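Priority: low. Protein: Tat (Twin-arginine translocation) pathway signal sequence. Input follows.
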Amino acid sequence: MGSYRMNSEIPLQDSWDVIVVGGGPAGCTAAAAAAREGAKTLLVEATSSLGGMGTSGLVPAWCPFSDLEQIIYRGLAVKVFESLKAQMPHVRKDAMDWVPIDPEKLKVIYDDLVREPGAVVQFMTQLGAVDTDDNGKVTALITASKNGLQALQAKVYIDCTGDADVAAWAGAEYLKGDTQTGELMPATHCFTLGNVDEYAYLNGPLLHSNNKTSPIYDILKSGRYPLIPDAHICNNMIAPRTVGFNAGHLWEVDNTDARSISEALMQGRKLAAAYRDALAEFIPASFGSSYVASTGSLMGVRETRRITGDYVLSVEDYVARRSFADEICRNSYFIDIHGTEKEEKQAGGKPEVIKRYGPGESHGIPYRCLTPRSLKNVLVAGRSISCVREVQGSVRVMPVCLAMGEAAGIAAAMASAQPAPDVHAVDIAALRRRLREEGAYLPLTEAEAAAATAKHGDAEGN
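Result:
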């Protein structure tokens, strides 16, 4: 491949304190939190709406917000969650886990979340390049939009692209997929079916693959729908007569390769039609008159790059339910790694190796997992934080990303106020204090508990 050098100058916007790239869950809370802290904040999003996988990607339900006892993804995360639930009358008010998502309602919730504290949103703007100096500092982002090429400059950048594009293009170290084979988890192209018979659906057979008598197994055995690859078929009623599906797998999809993701999207649309036809044949009472109402404008990508940060969250940390002095949120989701084609097509799918948490159990996510160790003014939040692949299978989901994003936004605002912005030099105690003030679930560390006890004792002595 040859090269081409441009001679034209690119217009520069250099008035921002914080620029967030990527308007998924992590990007939305990052931008909202940074603006709330007083930083002049820009959120750059490649599509025409905020919310990422919960909106453009059509993921039909939130992963659990609770540790089976209480909601642990709080602050802005629970604000988004409860705001959407309040607009969905068929959802129980006390529901905490696997709650359906109405994507159109959620888009507006994210719009309001980001704009109310004063962040500026720029849609349909694609990141094209990252400019750096020789000292680990990003100096500008080059973007492309209807305004043409623009250079955007800030004191601190938050990478919420999901693929660590900003960090990777700035030269940060990262890993990608399986460390031995490079294989990535399969993707899923979510879709919705309209004109579903609600009564028949809600009172009919459970479609999920955990049900060993699910009609999905009859569909696979029939051989009449060869496009349907396996038994994976999560589904939720997201609106009247409308069911959302997170179903099937597409292997060898790399979201960092434009041609790969383009091919997968075209394949996914055909797959959605195959599911509709199969469900109409095998469950006609529910789906006989249904149609494909929409397919995701984003592919459901589970993993690509993981940055190497100041700390790499390990399997041992997860298994030990470890706490950290610099943790910025807790996580209780199970290790959810979707397997190879062979693994997913076998009976029962890919087996779980690491035992799920019990009620009340969680682990901490350290701030150091958000700080690429070779970059001074970049934070990463979302599925590409610093962790081993197994743990990425847990921390990649939307509730966790919402919580991480808020922490990144506050930290970025703090770093932007420094004479020489350095995300590695943020005051952790101040960061955790602000998170708690905004409602975050951060149990006291042993040192904090001891200090609080000593302070209480001194107060009683006086």
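The chain has 14 helices and 15 strands. The first strand starts at residue 12 and ends at 21.
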